Structure formats: C-alpha cells, structure tokens
Amino acid sequence: MITAEDITRRSAIAEYQVVGRPPETDLESLVHLAATMCDVPTAVINIIDDRFQHQIAAVGLEPASCSREDSMCAVVFQQQVRTIVSDAREDPRFAANPFVTGELANVRFYASSPLVTPDGVPIGTLCIFDDRVRELSPEQGKALDLLARQVVDVLELLRLTYELGQSNEQLAQFAGQVSHDLRNPLMAVSGFLELATDSPDMVNAPHAAKALARAESAADRMAAMITDLLDFARIGGARPRRAPIDLGPLVSSVIEDLDATITSTGATVDVDTPFQVHGDETLLGALLQNLIANAVKFSAAAGVVPHVLVQAERVSAGVLVAVEDNGPGVAPEQRERVFDLMERAAGSEVAGLGIGLSTCRRIVEAHGGRIEIDESGLGGASVWFLLPDARSAA
C-alpha cells in the first residue's frame, strides 16, 4: 500500500510538471554549471518518486528514467544532506549498484545534494559523477548545495507559471463539467418517474409511491448539486464548503443515483467506508459519482461483469479513499494525462467528452487533497484520493 509520505512526494513532484517533458532550458543551464564548477563530465537533476528515478535534465548523457531500486540517489536523498563518495566500489551503500558494477555504468566518484521543496519534502537530487576515482573540494561541495537550491527555485517558478496559466482556462470550462456531473442523477430521476407513470394504480400501489419518493430525493440532490457546483465555479474552486461527512451514507446515496447504470450492467458494488471526512458533501458526492460510474462503465465496455470496490482507510494525513474495478485499467503512461480536460484513455470505447476525471481532480485539490490512478487488486484500475483531516485542510 502506498504510504502517506509517498503520496506527499508524488503530489509535490506533480505540481512541477517536469516529469515526462522535454528538459527546461534553465534546468539544463544549472546542470552544465554544476559539471563545470565541480570539474566532472556528468551532472544530472534526478526526480525520485516511490517507483522511479526521472532524469529531467543532464549533461554528459541523455536524460532517462530507471527504477528506484537501481537508483544511487534514492539511497541517500531523503537524508537531506550532501553525499560525497570518492570510490563507489568501496562504499557498502553503492558497491552492488548496477550503475557501479558495470551492468548500467561504471560510476566511481559520486556526489549529490538533495532537492527539498519549500515545504520540506525531498523530491530528488542534483547529482554529479565520474568514471574515475576523485575528490571534491569543500568549495565545490558548497557550490553543489547552492546549485541544488537554485534548481528548487526554478521548479517553484515553473509551478507558479503553470498554475497561473491554468486557473482562467479551468474557470471558463467549468460550466461544461457541471452538465456532465449531473447526468447520472438526472437518469435516476427519469427512470424512477417512468416506473411510477407506468404503474396501473399510482395512488394505491406502494411500490409506485416509493418510486416517486426516490425520484423526488434524487431531484433534490440534483438541485443542490447545481447550486453548489455553480457556486464552486464562481469562486474558482478555491473554498468549498466544509463540514463533517459520514462516507457510508454519502456513498449509499451515490449508488442509489447510479441504480439504472448498475442494474443494466449487472454490476456488483461493495462498500467499506466506515469513516468521517471533512468537506463539501455535494462536491464529494459528485466526485464519488464520477469514479463509481466510470468503474462500472469501463468494466462493462471491456466485456466483463463489473465488480467495483469502494473502500477507505485512515492514514496519518487524513482519509484515503479508493474506487477499484475489474476493468481494463489505465496504462502507466496515461495515468496523468487522463486527468487533463478533454482527455480520455487510449482505446476507450466508452462515450464521453473526457471531462469527468478533470472535474474529480479539481474537487479533490480544492479540498487540499490528491488524486491518482494505480493498479487494482481486482485486475483493473484503482483511482484513489486523499482527503486531509480538518486541521490539515484548513
């Protein structure tokens, strides 16, 4: 299970928008400067998450990625201090590393300074190395630390630039997202009303009266959703209403709204959410509705009888909620892209505009949380989100 520390690090890295993109010119300039000042042939900026090391800028080699298990920097970057090794073959931390043994490279001299965000989260290193044994002077070591801090400064500038560029565009497009989020409650209203209308004796038939009551309840939730989502759009998604919410009843109401979709596909939805969260009930309902509906529809489109599991657990930072399915899953290289507006997973046969997951991310981030996609134990996708506790979200 992914840890709260891993989630925090992933979140910090994602905000910088540098993994999987061409190297930024300013970052390339800093690695060139590091190599020159320290008189080494190779310098790299490494970003390290819980699975991979990503080289986002380099001199002396082409930037690439490797597993965290193969990374030399992954061994030391969380210590948040400079590391200098004259001959990695003689250091027990690195002697068996494939970058030292010749399997991937023949590193001898190694030095790195950690990259630490302003919030104190270590996310990688500024690393220099050589294929010969050598030393680093005290002055060069200080220069490496200074350049590592400048790398973080550049990353912060990139993050701010990206956020400013996205805010106006997201606000302008939010009206389209509202209609998408309301589709399933509207289907529930239509289905229940149709059932009531077809009843031969609507007044005296108990099942008809029950159907009308359910339709009225769904309509009320839809009206509240319209009001709150439009309020959310007007304030730019910055301050959703916050109150204690029991997840169990909230998930139950969402499943009731999705009754037509669940019944038509033969889906099974299991729920294990015995926790209370702090947030906006309408927005979190829209979030869960999107995720559960997607899990059912994409699994059915893959030709299997959908099995969906909604579960939650308390972690140190808040409550972690996961919606898992037995569908086709999402390829690792697409898991970040599908959260972008108007983007859908490659090969998807499910109709839609690709705005649901964008809405989900907007809602979760407005609550101070984080949402991502991993593999599910059921064989498909696990879309999880972290909702901070009341104190962290304030």
TrEMBL record:
Compartment list: Cell membrane
GO cellular component annotations of the record: plasma membrane
UniProt-listed GO biological process terms: osmosensory signaling via phosphorelay pathway
Alphabetic keyword roster: Kinase, Phosphoprotein, Transferase, Two-component regulatory system
Record's signal peptide: none
E.C. code: 2.7.13.3
GO molecular function: phosphorelay response regulator activity; phosphorelay sensor kinase activity; protein kinase activator activity
InterPro entries: BphY/WalK/GraS-like, GAF, GAF-like_dom_sf, HATPase_C_sf, HATPase_dom, His_kinase_dom, HisK_dim/P_dom, HisK_dim/P_sf
Catalytic activity from the UniProt record: ATP + protein L-histidine = ADP + protein N-phospho-L-histidine
Domain Histidine kinase: 177-391
Major site of localization recorded for this protein: membrane
Keyword check for Transcription: no
Domain of life: Bacteria
Entry protein name: Sensor-like histidine kinase SenX3
Lineage, highest ranks first: Bacteria, Bacillati, Actinomycetota, Actinomycetes, Micrococcales
